[in-house]
Amino acid sequence: MQELDLIIVGAGPVGLYAAFYAGMRGLSVAIIESAQVPGGQPQN
Q1: If both were cysteines, with which of 1, 5, 12, 44 could 27 make a disulfide (CB 3.0 to 4.6 Å apart)?
Q2: Where are the domains positioned within the chain?
Q3: CB neighbours of 30 closer than 8 A, spacing ≥ 6?
Q4: Looking at residue 15, what is its pLDDT?
Q5: Per-residue pLDDT tens for 1-44?
Q6: From CA 14, how far away is CA 25, in angstroms rounded?
Q7: What is the model's pLDDT at position 37?
Q8: In sequence order, what DSSP letters do the residues of the chain get, joined into one string?
Q9: Is the pTM of this model over 0.90?
Q10: Whether 39 contacts 19, CB under 8 Å
Q11: Are 8 and 36 in contact, with CB atoms under 8 Å apart?
């Protein structure tokens, strides 16, 4: 099992930015999203 520093629930704009920011800081990140595509409301 892979160890993660951060798990983000939701791949909306804020979740994606948080994952990007954490990754730039060297953290290993996983994003959990219930929809088939990321993006949240802006995708509609």
Answers
A1: 5
A2: 6-39
A3: 4, 6, 7, 8
A4: 95
A5: 889 999 999 999 999 999 999 999 999 999 999 988 888 776 55
A6: 16
A7: 84
A8: ----SEEEE--SHHHHHHHHHHHHTT--EEEE-SSSSS-SGGG-
A9: no
A10: no
A11: no
